[in-house]
Write a structure and sequence with these properties.
- The strands form three sheets. Strands 5, 6, 7, 13, 14, 15, 16, 17 and 18 form a nine-stranded mixed sheet that branches. Strands 1, 2, 9, 10, 11, 12, 19 and 20 form an eight-stranded mixed sheet that branches.
- Strand 11 and strand 12 form a beta hairpin.
- This protein folds into two domains: 188 residues, FAD/NAD(P)-binding domain (3-Layer(bba) Sandwich), CATH 3.50.50.60; 150 residues, D-Amino Acid Oxidase, Chain A, domain 2 (2-Layer Sandwich), CATH 3.30.9.10.
- The protein is globular and about 65 Å long.
- The protein is of the alpha+beta class and 390 residues long.
- The chain starts with a strand and ends in a 32-residue tail after the last helix.
- Helices cover 26% and strands 27% of the residues.
- Helix 1 runs parallel beside helix 6 and helix 1 crosses helix 9.
- The site of flavin-adenine dinucleotide has 42 residues, from helix 1, strand 13 and strand 18.
Length: 390
Amino acid sequence: MTRSFDYVVIGGGVMGASILYQLANRGAGSALLLEQGTLGFGSTGRSSGVIRMHYSTEVNTRLSWESLDTWRNWSDVIGHGDAGWTLTGFMAFSSPEYRETFESNITMQKSCGVNVSLISRDEALEIAPSFVVGDDETVAYEPESGYGDPSGSAIGWVTAARALGAEAELEKKVTSVNVVNDRVESLVVDGETINCGNVIVATGPWSAKFMTEHGIDLPLRATRHEVFLLKRNLETIPFHPGGADMANLTYFRPEAADLTLVGNGNVVHDADPDDYRSGASMDYLSDVWSRLAARIPAIEDAEYTHGYAGLYTETPDSHPIIDAVDGIQGMYICTGFSGHGYKLSPAVGTVMAELMLEGAATSIDITSLRMNRFTDNDLNTPQTTFRVMV
Ligand SMILES: Cc1cc2nc3c(=O)[nH]c(=O)nc-3n(C[C@H](O)[C@H](O)[C@H](O)COP(=O)(O)OP(=O)(O)OC[C@H]3O[C@@H](n4cnc5c(N)ncnc54)[C@H](O)[C@@H]3O)c2cc1C
């Protein structure tokens, strides 16, 4: 017998998992998630998990700020699994030539309700004695930010959704979505046809190929980015907050008891999601490590433990696409989160559910994330020199 679902989510990263949970939690009807690998198989499983509010556009700031409550109160809000929330505080550094824009971004963040303030050099050094801060630099501090466990979050959402009656199947690759008279009718997975009223494409770096195969060309790129873990000497650097260093182009955070995770995110190489080099390169390690040491000199004596690469899904304005697909009723798309989607995923699940069930997102205005902005030449204009902080 042909199975039927009201909603089928394609992709078991944080976005698909969060959307599945929101549909199930609203009693939206029967819902199924299909994932070609395991939960967290794509970008999610390689994510650095940084949770901060520093953005230069209102839509990203609001998505991030709205999400924080879920991260901090996961067991009360979601009730299953563990998103690994860890409070570290977060500092953003700006060099002098960028001060004015940086300060206006902070004003915008405050207007969205974010707990952030500009702090003096002395205050920064009190919070983070191992840092070097120049007299002419501007520093913003978010005391409520931290990091989480991206794969753990996806697993938690799917577990919670299953407890509410939704289904999720792993190692199931969707090969096609059948559209009849401009409306989604069914999809094919492992040779099985499943009838479905609505399909949500949350396929991360595979999205460009998947959409092209369905006749929709979107300017999406999968790009490769490396992350490294260094073991600190706890006598010289017992702890440091998370940070984004726009002068030296690194982002970093503490990991567990004695590790520091560092990435750069600004060097972009296109990659094939089915065939890319997932290991780290030593030349790049040396470049990023020395940039980090410009902010935290004692990190020079750290020990390299490991590194790896993962994929961002990029759009020309580094903002995601969250929308109903033009011309195909019942098809929705949620992709293009570049290097900063994890922290937004609780609110993204909410706005996607609102979009599908109420016809429009009501909690946050996501008009600027619509898919036709590229053809309309109406892109977002991030005010930052550091691509991962859009
Ligand atoms: C190195 C790195 C560091 C990052 N650091 C941060 C950070 O510190 N903070 C932050 O907020 N964000 C960060 N990000 C970004 C964040 O991880 C991503 O934006 C987020 O994980 C995207 O989630 P997703 O669900 O859209 O995509 P994915 O996690 O890629 O999930 C898509 C899923 O779809 C599945 N899929 C694809 N095609 C099919 C198909 N045909 N059938 C079935 N399943 C399919 C894939 O297997 C995959 O599991 C980082 C990303 C990387 C790579």
